[in-house]
Design a protein that fits this description.
Number of strands: 15
Radius of gyration: 20 Å
Largest sheet: 8 strands, mixed
Number of domains: 2
Oligomer: single chain
Distance between the termini: 30 Å
CATH topology of the largest domain: Aminopeptidase
Order of helices and strands: EHHEEEEHEEEHHEHHEEEHEHEEHH
CATH class of the largest domain: Alpha Beta
Length: 343
């Protein structure tokens, strides 16, 4: 077996051919995400390929992030829900992870994090604090409506009474999406990603990405950034304006997405990841979605404590309160410089 780093157009093609043949590969294993991350954040990437007899038998995409504030770490993949090691057998999987650990040691990284959709059984510390929420879809709105819980249908009806309208588009809706997303992130006390990230995704996956916009009296009040792969469409980032909460725009937003996805022929809707027990977890669960545990696997030098870089960490509470008080224009300016250093 030979493990090397993908570096050429030929490697990229072979990588995509491997993904096409393996059901466990996710949206985030696609080689295009390498270009998205490199073009947006300029972080070094290591896309590891395991070969045997001239054929690829495993892959592991890695991104190396460093900053004086948060340290150094390798992630597969940062910012996204999964993208960990995929291999045809256990020995290949272990060899790829061993190479990743070797890179982490070489770069003096604080830790290695593999975001897995399924448990890779690597005998390494694993967190299951994040879950995906998946809802089967129906091809028509009537069939979809019949499957929704009574309370959800009631809230959707309430939102419809306010005359909300919904549209789907692409890069033409990017500015609308980013304005609402940035404002929502500021109010949550979280630094916002750069607008370039969303532009690069739309540029790399133009036929697989959508932006949904909900309007009230022509004013955009809720948005969602969607990505599709293999019959599943996922809401990667969604936001709404708090001042319009009485109109229940989130209920109308997700109902519109479900109808759109069903009509497009998708089989599943992925609400995106949530922290177990959080408000977003409860919101997504009420739709009747199925919980899928996510396995985040770690290698930490010397058996040190696992990282806790998340907004639930008490050490960040003061920073969150201060961030919420900043002008929106300031958060758009400095937020991307901070959040690019987070996995």
């Amino acid at each position: 077996m030979n493990i090397r780093r993908a570096s050429s157009t030929k490697d990229a093609q072979a990588w995509e051919e491997f993904i096409a043949q393996h059901a466990q590969c996710s949206n985030y294993h696609r080689f295009g995400w390498k270009r998205v991350i490199e073009n947006t954040f300029h972080w070094p990437t290591f896309y590891l390929m395991a070969e045997h007899g001239g054929n690829i038998c495993g892959i592991l995409p890695l991104v190396w992030q460093t900053s004086s504030l948060f340290g150094s770490f390798l992630t597969s993949l940062p910012f996204l829900n999964c993208g960990g090691v995929i291999a045809e057998d256990r020995s290949t999987r272990e060899a790829l992870v061993a190479e990743a650990i070797a890179i982490a040691k070489e770069k003096k990284a604080d830790y290695l994090e593999l975001r897995q959709r399924e448990n890779p059984e690597l005998n390494l510390p694993t967190k299951t604090h994040k879950i995906a929420m998946i809802l089967p879809l129906q091809p028509d709105s009537q069939g979809m409506w019949a499957l929704l819980p009574h309370k959800v249908r009631t809230d959707i009806r309430k939102s419809m009474k306010f005359g909300l309208e919904c549209q789907f588009g692409g890069v033409d809706f990017l500015d609308i999406f980013y304005d609402i997303f940035a404002k929502n992130m500021r109010e949550l006390g979280t630094p916002v990603y750069t607008r370039k990230l969303f532009f690069e995704i739309l540029n790399e996956f133009p036929t697989d990405s959508y932006i949904c916009v909900v309007r009230h009296k022509k004013k955009p009040i809720a948005v969602s950034f969607l990505s599709e792969f293999r019959g599943t469409i996922e809401a990667l980032w969604s936001s709404s304006l708090y001042e319009f909460a009485p109109l229940k725009p989130n209920m109308f937003l997700y109902w519109s997405i479900l109808c759109f996805a069903g009509q497009k022929g998708f089989q599943f809707f992925d609400f995106g990841r949530s922290s177990v027990g959080s408000g977003t977890h409860r919101f997504k669960k009420q739709w009747g979605s199925q919980e899928v545990p996510l396995h985040w696997v770690y290698w930490v030098p010397g058996g040190a404590n696992l990282p806790e870089l998340n907004i639930e960490n008490s050490r960040y509470r003061l920073a969150i309160r201060l961030w919420q008080k900043l002008p929106l224009a300031v958060t758009k300016l400095i937020g991307p410089r901070i959040v690019r250093c987070l996995p």
